[in-house]
Amino acid sequence: MTYRGVVLDVDGTVVRGDEPIPGAAEGLDRLGRAGLRRLFVSNNPTKRPPAYAERLRRAGFDAHPDEIVTAGTITTDYLADNHADDVLFVVGEDALVDQLTDAGLSVVADEARADTVVVSIDRTFDYDRLCAALRACDDEAVTLVGTDPDMVIPAAEGDLPGSGAIINAVAGVVGRDPDVMLGKPSEPAQRVVREYLDLPPADCLVVGDRLDTDIALGERAGMTTALVRTGVTDDRDLERSDVQPDYVLDSLADVATIL
Ligand SMILES: [Mg+2]
Questions:
Q1: pLDDT in tens, 169-193
Q2: Are strands 106-107 and 116-119 parallel, antiparallel or unpaired?
Q3: Pick from 37, 84, 117, 243: CA 20 to 30 A from residue 259's CA?
Q4: How many folded domains does the chain comprise?
């Protein structure tokens, strides 16, 4: 099969923390030589695309910020398209808030003013923040938005709680699920990918380490999917999952075998 575009996950596929994953450099080289248009899509909203490019550079990979999309980007685009006039209350980190405000969206510190509550990974999350989120969602009309469903993020020191963990805490206390969950594999994420690659889905490949986000995104978008075993998914997860990739690769280096 000749592919013309590829969607690449970052954490667990290309890097772990700031370290390159063995085989990733070889795989990226191979994809580059095959002339595939590439887009890195990460569900980690703690860094903006330029900071992500810098992180990839530290791991030895050259990537332009324009070819990187994060859950922060997808959330910002979604809110700008659908809730442009809403007052936002954010449980999330500074990079996400900056991304939202740079797009002209209104983020407030006073939870009582919120029309929409955006919840994401927040490494300073505490009881007071949970109280504020609960008060913000007091009005049933308030829209509850999650940036991405990832429960954990693979890091150099092991897995860390991700956005999904914080979103679950808020959803639990508020007593309702998010109205919208962005990031992979959401429809808004699929749209961003389709618009960027601008290719028929059948000509595109999605490579990632997660079944419920990366592989699900590719499946829903009609693209060929490849799971790499360098991240969070082990054989048991694969056996138990309803989401099945078209290919399973030991690492990104093996992408050569399916091009
Ligand atoms: Mg990953």
A1: 999 999 999 999 999 999 999 999 9
A2: unpaired
A3: 243
A4: 2
In a domain, 74, yes or no: no
Do 30 and 116 lie in a common domain? no
- Mark whether 190 and 160 lie in a shared domain: no
Domain boundary among 181, 203, 233: 181
Query: Cα-atom radius of gyration of the chain, to the nearest Å?
Result: 18
**Residue 40 C-alpha to ligand 1 middle, in angstroms?**
11
Q: CB pairs under 8 A, 24+ apart, for 77-82?
A: 77/188, 77/192, 78/145, 78/180, 78/182, 78/188, 79/103, 79/105, 79/116, 79/118, 79/145, 80/104, 80/105
In this structure, are residues 80 and 103 in contact, taking their beta carbons and an 8 Å threshold? yes
- Looking from the CA of 255 toward its CB, the CA atoms found within 13 Å total 34
CATH of the domain at 161: 3.40.50.1000
Residues 190 and 177 in one domain: no
Distance 129 CA to ligand 1 centre (A): 27
Distance 213 CA to ligand 1 centre (A): 8
For residue 149, give its domain range. Answer: 83-181
Q: Is the pTM of this model over 0.85?
A: yes
Q: What sign for the dihedral angle of Cα 212, 213, 219, 225?
A: negative
85 is catalytic: no
